[in-house]
Amino acid sequence: MAQIIVVTSGKGGVGKTTSSAAIATGLALEGHKTVVIDFDIGLRNLDLIMGCERRVVYDFVNVINGEANLNQALIKDKRSNNLFILPASQTRDKDALTKEGVGKVLEDLSKDFEYIICDSPAGIEQGAMMSLYYADIAIITTNPEVSSVRDSDRILGMLQSKSRRAEQNLEPIQEYLLLTRYSPKRVTTGEMLSVEDVEEILAIELVGVIPESQAVLKASNSGTPVILDNESDAGKAYSDTVERLLGNNVPLRFLEEEKKGLLKRIFGS
Amino acid sequence: MLESNLELKGSSFTLSVLHIKSAELQKIRIELEEKLAIAPQFFLGAPLVLNLAAVAEQDINLSELKQILIEQGLVIVGVTSGSESQLSAAKDLGLAVIKPGKTVESKFINAPKSTQIVKKNIRSGQQIYAKNADLIVVGTVSNGAEVIADGSIHIYGTLRGKAMAGATGDNNAVIIAHRMESELISIAGQYWLAENLAEHDTDKACCIRLADESLLFEPLTF
Ligand SMILES: Nc1ncnc2c1ncn2[C@@H]1O[C@H](COP(=O)(O)OP(=O)(O)O)[C@@H](O)[C@H]1O
Ligand SMILES: [Mg+2]
């Protein structure tokens, strides 16, 4: 049976798609057969981040509606044999994602894959609810600011009441906190919440801290998940996160402001 | 054979009764707004019966009264104990005329009080109501969450959301939290906002109770 992982947040623009792409790629690189699904019907940007937008023929909604089968819609990643993408449609309305339809697709994928990553849209509407409904694990993607933390808290409430595991009284969804766009400098100046602040408010296990990084924009412009940029701090932080998801104990990094060297301090950066 | 699309079955429901004590609708509107602001969502959607006994001798515009109540999010299903003409006016408004029932006098004194224990964090958007009971939360109550009890409320984590104890009027109810950063707390309708709490040392375990109609802060030290 596959593990179904939802990457969710409530709030938009916090880094869900960036994280879904990175984590799916990381799991595949570790040898696990993984599929990543775009639940953001109408926006569709997972395929851009994964660099496969030109190979989209059929999509998730086509499969649900029986207009294409999974093999026709799944796109094989060009970098890893273990990784597949199920893209969202750009046009159809969000109500196309029915509980039965999504359930059937996930059940079929579960036969072939070890991990199914669900990239959730923002908000708490149909698409977001469907992406979390069948989850075994939730990665609560949160930026270190009050409004994002509040929305994450709201989503945690949904996981506890509106998911399949909640409705059927099964073992609850495993909840992990992924702090993204973390800027130690802005924490020092008091503009942002610290890791400890967010952990204290949300009270769930921390699985990773991804620093704010230029590398992310560069990676998405070139259609390469940032985890493949193993020179970058964001790439390394995502690799660490994947290790922790797989149960390995890796210390956190990039929590402190980088010390500027003497030359940089004199000449500016 | 034709299958029936309808089936009539007898069932009994508990309805809350709202006693209308004045025919001055503006006063009712204002008081209701105040009450609902203190315990938001508490009555929302719950079916209510209007008891008109106190205004049976007076001229009251039922249609306007109904409108005021609906605007506040209340659901009116019927009226009881009015004059002949009031009851027939109610019928014309599509309301049921209900025979007066037995009133349960001051439940919090007579009814045996129970305890409801919740072992999890209460998240934003969630609401817990411990009816006829004390509420114990082994966890934290987030901003945007609401905990309500007819009895007392004990929180073993941090209280950040709203807490309303003594919701049916029990003056002896208390609110105790390991740490209080609440948006609003109230006991039997008396309330404090975050700014009132900020005047006290709420970083440590503390208790809020009611003394002579106003709330009182007590640190929990021995
Ligand atoms: N760690 C990061 N550092 C800098 N920019 C980031 C980081 N994570 C995400 N972003 C940027 O934030 C924006 C939103 O990211 P995205 O993953 O699309 O969020 P979501 O899917 O939650 O809406 C994008 O422009 C992305 O490049
Ligand atoms: Mg997205």
Write up what this structure looks like.
- The complex is a heterodimer of chains A (269) and B (222).
- Chain A is α/β, with parallel strands linked by helices and 269 residues long.
- Chain A has one domain (3-266): Rossmann fold.
- Chain A has 13 helices and 8 strands.
- In chain A, strand 3 and strand 4 form a beta hairpin.
- In chain A, helix 1 (16-29) packs across helix 12.
- The longest helix of chain A has 16 residues, at 146-161.
- Chain B has 222 residues and is an alpha/beta fold.
- In chain B, helix 1 links the parallel strand 1 (16-19) and strand 2 (47-51).
- Chain B has helices at residues 25-38, 62-71, 84-92, 107-110, 194-197, and strands spanning 16-19, 47-51, 75-80, 96-97, 114-118, 127-130, 133-137, 146-149, 153-159, 162-165, 175-180, 184-187, 190-193, 206-211, 214-219.
- The N and C termini of chain B lie far apart (76 Å).
- Chain B contains 5 helices and 15 strands.
- The longest helix of chain B has 14 residues, at 25-38.
- The complex binds adenosine-5'-diphosphate and magnesium ion.
Tell me briefly what this model is.
Chain A is 41% helix and 16% strand.
**Largest interface, Cβ cutoff 8 Å:** A-B, 10 and 15 residues
Task: Name the structural class of chain B.
Answer: alpha/beta
The CATH topology of the largest domain in chain B is what?
Pectate Lyase C-like
CATH-defined fold name of chain A = Rossmann fold
Average pLDDT value of chain B? 86
Largest sheet of chain B: 6 strands, mixed
Question: Strand order within the widest sheet of chain A?
Answer: 3-4-2-5-1-6-7-8
The string of secondary-structure elements of chain B, in order, is EHEHEHEHEEEEEEEEEHEE
Helix content of chain A: 40-55%
Mean of residue pLDDT of chain A? 94
